[in-house]
Amino acid sequence: SINGDRLWDSLMEMAKIGKTAKDGVCRLALTDLDRESRDLFIKWCKAESCTIRIDKMGNIFARREGRNPDLPPVVMGSHLDSQPTGGKYDGVYGVLSGLEVIRALNEAKYETEAPLEVVCWTNEEGSRFAPAMVASGVFAKVFDLEYGHSRADVDGKTMGEELKRIGYLGDDEATIDAHPMGAYFEAHIEQGPILEDEGKDIGIVTDAQGQRWYEIKFTGVEAHAGPTPMKTRKDALLGAARVVDLVNRIGLDRSPLACATVGMMQIHPNSRNVIPGEVFFTVDFRHPDDAVLADMDKALREGVEKIASEIGLKTEFEQIFYYAPVPFDKTCVDAVRNAVEIGGYSAREIVSGAGHDACYLAQVTPTAMIFIPCVDGISHNEIEEVHKHWSDAGGQVLLHAVLAKADE
Amino acid sequence: SINGDRLWDSLMEMAKIGKTAKDGVCRLALTDLDRESRDLFIKWCKAESCTIRIDKMGNIFARREGRNPDLPPVVMGSHLDSQPTGGKYDGVYGVLSGLEVIRALNEAKYETEAPLEVVCWTNEEGSRFAPAMVASGVFAKVFDLEYGHSRADVDGKTMGEELKRIGYLGDDEATIDAHPMGAYFEAHIEQGPILEDEGKDIGIVTDAQGQRWYEIKFTGVEAHAGPTPMKTRKDALLGAARVVDLVNRIGLDRSPLACATVGMMQIHPNSRNVIPGEVFFTVDFRHPDDAVLADMDKALREGVEKIASEIGLKTEFEQIFYYAPVPFDKTCVDAVRNAVEIGGYSAREIVSGAGHDACYLAQVTPTAMIFIPCVDGISHNEIEEVHKHWSDAGGQVLLHAVLAKADE
Ligand SMILES: NC(=O)NCCC(=O)O
Ligand SMILES: NC(=O)NCCC(=O)O
């Protein structure tokens, strides 16, 4: 059995790093706070006699040896970085429940056949550096190292520079080829309302939605808000506003499965009495069916072109991120299902709405995910909350799923 | 006669302070660059033997004595602050053409009956500190000193603090009562396309449009862009986007006289995969007819309420700035008209689309404005441009209008 109290205490301890006024967490990737959380994680892992390996993308692997060191490890994990207004569980739960599995096995002096590892992936959130899950993407050979290191934040600082600055640019090759895995399990909060609504403790994640992310820039003509007649304006914000409405309709028309969001917008020069000359904004599309995702893409491209030509705006349009819907590995999903039965938890199958490092890992190693509910389905928000018995259940299911694979 | 070359040279010299890459000017109110421009203006005025007075709002008055020092001065001027992406002429032209009038009179050893003054008003643009024209507003007793000093920028720095910091918090009372004027003349670029389109060198400004400025904040619920179903979202940016479209329609429906603009928007947390929980934005309405302006106000209030309730957003709504359309003084407008005839310039009557310090001055002293064209009507843009013969013409008309009043 895992120790639910110890897992909970570690979650609360980690949440102090980057704690916000509203009791959330702001711990953007590769900031000093991210370094602090990494340092603490490593300290805890060393206390459990794990060996630590850091790769060229800053991914941290903590290893507990198995009876047969030649077997590829069964890996658990997630990420420690957060959104600007993030919560205490998104990512952290997957890392620390992995650590709790190791603590529990150490306490029970239980030796597994295959080695176990807990991994912390760099920049999962995609908030400071787009796109999301970039370091697990490099590990899964979706991106090359050069791409990973060159991702830049709004100030132009790159991931490579920032990894070096915080002391987490490791020597190890950051690919699955250098470090094959037996299986990968990621425990995570659902970040949506389904499990709580249906009173389930565990989500057996069978698939993850596909995603497409875009960057759009409209350029019009900035001019004085007073003496510039309405009919001669080329208002870049008007164009962006119409795309926000379009994106919402694209999502609603394909509801309930589709999601469509404009989350970020930068207006230039952003002065009350100046018609905006330039607006940069992002679009995030999700759907479990790749064909529908392609159809959403088409609707966006056509709509943006129409809106821009109506107003007379110049358009820069780029899809910066795409992955097809991900089916998880049947044997790993079965291991989760069996672990749920052993624990006697209420559960249902579920499709992940969010992207996770597991989505990239699934392309290169047998992978599954375990969801626990979160209160009101709210995440990417400082008020993100989890009931402790959910946290206990997720840790317990992770333990048994991992043991099934490691001793197989 | 004024010396058009000297006026032009001074404009170019001043434009070096805060020069931008695209040959525009960024000289926000009460920044170090604003201080530099003030210092240069004062240096030039002292070289013309003017006495300098600075009031509690940082307004600078440079005085050339008249034959009868007891007469209230005839005052010329405008402002030296700019938009973030501003041009070389907006405001500066009114200050430096006033200085050129004094230089020309000194050169000609011409003594006026009434004293002359050139004034530089603080924070006309309203970009760093809202609202616009706040210091001339205090001078005209529309606002009190406490209100003026407490206006804050986005970082919370107040005008009072920043005046002190740059050394321009003067001792003089900042009201017309302490410093009566005989008349006030402001030369300015049109900032719209009418004069150039019709091939006129001078606009005889008879009126200025009324304005209403608003601040609106929508609060929804920030949540994850992936697993949060479209139907349960409370997306603050969707609400703001719909208001941008509404504002545009309110303007277009009352075209060609109405103007309606959303110039500024701040999105929170502004992360690609987070549904925006909070959006702050501004609205700027203008119309020469106060009744229509009131009707625009009604349409906005109703529309915002409807949009917010459709999406389920909390609304904070405030009108932060209002003035009714301004008729300028008949005798001063006639003085401009006569000066145009003396110079033999092509001219037309015009209504100002922009707000100017003259709009507040008009409430407390006989006031008129002189417009010169600007290329393509573009202003509040780094590419703002003026042909030199327009600049010459405006300075000449200002000279003769002022002389008519000062020797009356
Ligand atoms: N789990 C999570 O919040 N991932 C961030 C990437 C995404 O937006 O799906
Ligand atoms: N002239 C000018 O740009 N004034 C700023 C205030 C306004 O927006 O009308």
TrEMBL record, chains A, B:
Positions with a binding annotation for Zn(2+) 1: 79, 90, 188
Pfam family, one: M20_dimer
Keyword Metal-binding: yes
Cofactor binding notes: Binds 2 Zn(2+) ions per subunit.
Cofactor requirements of the protein: Zn(2+)
Positions bound to Zn(2+) 2: 90, 125, 380
Keywords: Hydrolase, Metal-binding, Zinc
Domain Peptidase M20 dimerisation: 209-308
GO molecular function: hydrolase activity, acting on carbon-nitrogen (but not peptide) bonds, in linear amidines; metal ion binding
PANTHER family listed in its UniProt record: ALLANTOATE AMIDOHYDROLASE (PTHR32494:SF5), ALLANTOATE DEIMINASE-RELATED (PTHR32494)
Protein family according to the UniProt entry: Belongs to the peptidase M20 family.
Protein name: Allantoate amidohydrolase
Originating organism: Thalassospira xianhensis MCCC 1A02616
